[in-house]
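[Automated response] Your request has been received and processed.

Submitted sequence:
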Amino acid sequence: MAASAAACRSPPLLLLALVITVVAPASALQLPEYIKACSRNDPDLNACAYKNALEAIPNLIKGDRQYNVPPLNPLKVTEIKVSGGEGSVGLDITFSDVSFHGFTEAVVKETNFDLANNKAEIKASVPVGQLLGKYEVDGKVLLLPIKGSGDANITLTDLDVDITVQWELETKDDGKEYIKPVDSDIKYEMSRAYMYLDNLFDGDKLLGDNTNQFLNENWQEVVKEIGPALAEALSQVVTLVLSGIAGLVPYDEVFPEAV
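Generated structure:
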């Protein structure tokens, strides 16, 4: 049974840092050759955007430093930090040196561009998403204390994400308007989450194995706590790609009057 949908809007308890080298070109760039423009006057704009997105994804996954798009296979994240709440689950957990795998199999299901309101919605699915990295945790799950640090492996299956990005048009020194993402919102569902935290309780195998079993038996409660942070990482990827390209290519070339 799928986990209930959840929303995440710039969570205050989340710290997420993406690895990327910012390139600041001296002048505006044209769209990369693997991305085709759609006319803003096209009555079938969303059909055009969906088709072009499918064609562009294989190249985007490789990354494009010229447009500040990081490689997505895997996506490197320096740190994801979650501070626990006061409920039955309260995890102070930090993931570091994280690699997200699975984007090569991501499927864009729908794109909706509302140019009048400077908004875009992207629906996508990832059959199997995997987080590999280091962790440090101190907290509880359903009154069970959890403490340790070591290697982490979290696998999410049938991950569906619905990402909405809001932008404003910014006029730069060259007098041209550019898209500047200012907000993002994400909803997500998954059918299952599997996790393994190595070296819990200073390597106590019995306690560690029992705790990992408990975490997997109660995965939905754990996902409520750390799921928004992981989903926000996916949202940041989309925002990063949009801002990387649209921030360097003028709006009139991203969405020209005619193609």
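Summary generated for your ticket: The two ends are 45 Å apart (CA to CA). The beta strands are 6-8, 14-18, 75-82, 89-101, 107-114, 119-141, 144-171, 177-189, 192-197.
If you did not submit this request, please reply to this message.
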